[in-house]
Design brief:
This protein is α+β, with helices and mostly antiparallel strands and about 160 residues long. It has a four-stranded antiparallel β-sheet, with helices on one face. The radius of gyration is 20 Å and the shape is elongated. About 30% of the residues lie in helices and about 20% in strands. The chain contains five helices and eight strands, in the order H-E-H-E-H-E-E-H-E-E-H-E-E.
């Protein structure tokens, strides 16, 4: 996350960490991250020593430890709405390319009346939502679209 700070900033996204460790433990952990990852960790980390937040959001891995949190990612929009939750076991690293892809897709679908297909990345075609009539689509997507089925129209956006 620290290494990708410019990518998050480009998307106007602010990472926030949560740990069941103490603030003092975080200080040591941050030094380790900075040293081993050749980065500077600058995003805030919440010290949830009492595990209130971690337990509230099912972030304690039941088969690992009473304190070790599951590697959960919550994507929360500017309106404080949880848009996506991804949870990884402690033994599996997170896929930050996927996290950035999801943020891009959410921002695209919020901005345009489109849906992003599986494995979509910026620059790929998007799907015009079925709720958009062809008449409305002519106004919204003057670049045109390709109709694969009446409910499946692909277009390119910038």
């Amino acid at each position: 996350t620290a290494q990708l700070a410019p990518e998050f900033e480009k998307r106007n996204v602010k990472p926030l960490g949560l740990s069941t460790d103490t603030v003092e433990a975080h200080k040591g952990w941050i030094e380790d991250v900075n040293d081993t990852q050749s980065t500077v960790l600058e995003f805030p980390i919440v010290a949830d020593k009492e595990r209130k937040v971690a337990e509230l959001y099912d972030m304690i891995h039941p088969n690992e430890s009473a304190t070790a949190t599951v590697r959960s990612v919550f994507i929360i929009d500017p309106n404080q709405k949880v848009r996506l939750i991804m949870t990884y076991p402690m033994t599996v690293g997170r896929n930050f390319n996927e996290i950035l892809r999801v943020i891009d897709a959410l921002q695209t679908t919020d901005r345009e009346e489109v849906a992003c297909p599986a494995d979509w990345v910026p620059g790929d075609s998007v799907i015009i939502r079925p709720t958009v009539s062809d008449e409305d689509a002519k106004q919204k997507f003057p670049q045109g679209w390709k109709t694969l089925r009446p409910y499946l129209r692909l277009t390119d956006i910038k």
